[in-house]
Each structure stands twice: as C-alpha cells, then as structure tokens.
Amino acid sequence: MSLPKTLADDVARNLVMVAQLLDEDPEAAYEYSRIALRLASRVAAVREAAGFASYATARYGEALAEFRATRRMTGSVDLWPVMADCERGMGRPERALAMAGAPEVQKLDKAGQVEMRLVAAGARQDMGQPEAAVVTLQGPELASNAMNPWTARLRYAYADALLAVDRKAEAREWFAKALESDQSGSTDASDRLAELDGVEFVDALVEDPAEAQDAEAAVEPAKTKAARAEADADADAEADEDEDEDEDAIEDEDVVERVEIAEVEVDITDEADPASFLDSPFKEPRQGTDEV
Predict the structure, then answer these.
(1) How many angstroms separate the CA atoms of 80 and 101, rounded?
(2) Distance between CA 209 and CA 230 in Å, rounded?
C-alpha cells in the first residue's frame, strides 16, 4: 500500500523511533508505534513494528493481534515463533506447544526453527515438565560447533534447563559454552557461572556498613574535640570582650574623676591666683581680649 509522501515521511519517522528505542526504552517505543499505527494501520511494516513494541512491554494480547494482522497481510510465517511466545505470555503454554507442532514450523528457516524450539522448551517448563524441556532443546544445532547468531541463546537455554533438573555439572559446562559463543553479550552466562562456582562480586564503590560505622565512630571524637575547641575559643573571645569593656569603663571613670578634680582645682585657683588658670591643661579657649 502506497502513502502520500508527507504521510509516508511521518510514518517513517515514527518507525525509526520505534527501532531506536525498542531496547533501551520500550515504553517510549510503544508510544511511537501507536502514532504510526493511527497514521497507517494498513501497512504491514507498521503492524509488525507495533507488535514488537507491544511484545517488548509485555502487552502480549496486543502483540499477538498485530502479528496475526501482519501475517494476513504478508502471508509470511516468520513471526510464528514470537506469536507462540505471546501465547505463553498470556498464560496459555499448551497453545504454544500446539503451534510448535504445526506445519508452519517446517516453513521456517534454521534460525526460526531454533527460536521455535526455545519457545517450546519454555512452554514445557511453564507446564511443570522440566525434563521434557531438556529433551526439547537437544538436537544437531546444539551439538554443532558452528557459531550462529542463535548459538549462545540455545546453549544458555539448555544450561538453564539442566540446572532446573539439578544436573549442575552439565549446566556449568553449557553455561561456559554459552559464554564462549556469546560475542554480543546477549546473555548473563558469566554471572550464572560465577553463581554456580560460589563467586560473589562486590561493588568497590559500595561502602561496607560495618566499615562505615567504624569510620564514623573514629571521626566522632575528632568532631567533639573540634566542637569543644570552638566553644573554648568563643568563651575566650567573650572573656576578652568583657575585659576590654571593663577596662574602658575604668578609663571612663578615671577621666571623669580627673575632670572633677581639675574643675575643683580651677575653682580654687581662680579665687587664689587668676594667672594660674592660664597654665591649666583644662582651660577654656579664650573668646576675645580685654584690651581696648
């Protein structure tokens, strides 16, 4: 189906955003897919993108509806495994197993068939059949030494199935093989190996609570000492200030006393000898002269 150029550009921009955000922010990718779906719901690529966005956000019912619509539009069976996994997500593992035995599986390429086997094994585990899950994953693809895009995931799933039936030694062997073939880091095989080996990773940036408490206890006396020193300094400053005020008060009283004494002396001198006033340090400035 062809779209007008402006509309096609808008749809394409939204599909690009879906592809970019699907892994890192699936909810945002889902919102962009809904916009594209409103703009061009009859375009198979839009329905497929909407299906994967719904699948990434665990909206399995919506995803299954979009994948079925895509299949009707294109006639392709490529989405058959993910459609079966949607059935698992909706709590219907028996339907997923039925799809694993359908004729459509024979039309899938090797990657699709491996993906279908992974889904079927997961459905067996959902149904409480872990031994059957182990058998489901066995096959020539698992034994092959060839490295394919799906090799790491198949080996990882097999190791996990072995661990579920308490075959730990074999599980460790296959986790190691999964890690060896996982060039893109799509699995956490290294963590599972460490867990089986009893290795515990400690984040160097995370402080041990006990050490933090000891450090705080060591710092506390220093804080107390510093606070005490600061309080003593403030007390000394206040004492010095009080002492200065006392000295100022004494000086002021002394000045007053000296002035009073001087005034008495002036009064006595004026009566006894007027000339002596001229030599007094407290004499008033002369306002004029008596000469004519």
Answers:
(1) 11
(2) 31
pTM over 0.70: no
Domain ranges of the chain: 1-76, 209-274
pLDDT tens by residue, the chain, 292 residues: 678 889 999 999 999 999 999 999 999 999 999 999 999 999 999 999 999 999 999 999 999 999 999 999 999 999 999 999 999 999 999 999 999 999 999 999 999 999 999 999 999 999 999 999 999 999 999 988 889 999 999 999 999 999 999 999 999 999 999 999 998 888 999 999 999 988 775 655 555 566 656 655 554 555 555 556 666 666 666 655 555 555 555 555 554 455 444 454 444 444 444 333 333 333 344 344 443 3
Determine the Cα–Cα distance for residues 262 and 276; give it in Å rounded to an integer. Answer: 13
Please give the angle made by the CA atoms of 232, 236 and 238, to the nearest 5 degrees.
115
Is-contact 142 118, C-beta < 8 A?
no
Transcribe 222-279 into DSSP letters.
Answer: HHHHHHHHHHHHHHHHHHHHHHHHHHHHHHHHHHHHHHHHHHHHHHHHHHH-GGGGGG
Q: Which CATH class is domain 1-76?
A: mainly alpha
Which of 114, 195, 125, 194 has the alpha carbon at shortest distance from 155?
Answer: 114
- Closest by CA position to 118, among listed 139, 148, 102: 139
Q: Give dist(CA 45, CA 22) in Å, integer.
A: 15
Q: Using CA atoms, how far apart are residues 63 and 41, in angstroms rounded to an integer?
A: 14
Q: Report d(CA 37, CA 142) in Å as an integer.
A: 39
Burial class (CB in 10 A: 0-12, 13-18, 19+), 101: exposed
105, 116 Cβ separation under 8 angstroms = yes
Among 138, 139, 128, 143, residue whose Cα is nearest residue 177? 143
